[in-house]
């Protein structure tokens, strides 16, 4: 059940980090690609555009309505404030106060 390497006495060198004195691994093949042959950004711009559009499209109905409602509310409030601070608005407020 163990690694087959037996128990090493304390203080003995087991080898480099991760090599616990067991038998050599056999039949494991590793393939690598030279760093100057890799293209880490290949297709990144195209993927960013299409992925960005997909994410925007999926979230716009959650984000846009509150912003539109907030814009319309602020627009109405600014117009109402401008009207109430005008001569016509003051006259309307005075007429309502007389009742």
From TrEMBL:
The places in or outside the cell where this protein is found are: Mitochondrion inner membrane
- Record membrane topology: Single-pass membrane protein
Q: Does the keyword Transport apply?
A: yes
Predominant localisation class: mitochondrion
What keywords are assigned to this protein? Electron transport, Membrane, Mitochondrion, Mitochondrion inner membrane, Respiratory chain, Transmembrane, Transmembrane helix, Transport
Tell me the GO BP annotations in alphabetical order. mitochondrial electron transport, ubiquinol to cytochrome c
Task: Spell out the GO cellular component terms annotated for this protein, sorted alphabetically and separated by semicolons.
Answer: mitochondrial inner membrane; respiratory chain complex III
Gene3D superfamilies named in the record: Cytochrome b-c1 complex subunit 8
What is this protein's function? Answer: Component of the ubiquinol-cytochrome c oxidoreductase, a multisubunit transmembrane complex that is part of the mitochondrial electron transport chain which drives oxidative phosphorylation. The complex plays an important role in the uptake of multiple carbon sources present in different host niches.
Give the protein's recorded name. Cytochrome b-c1 complex subunit 8
- Native source organism of the sequence: Drechslerella stenobrocha 248
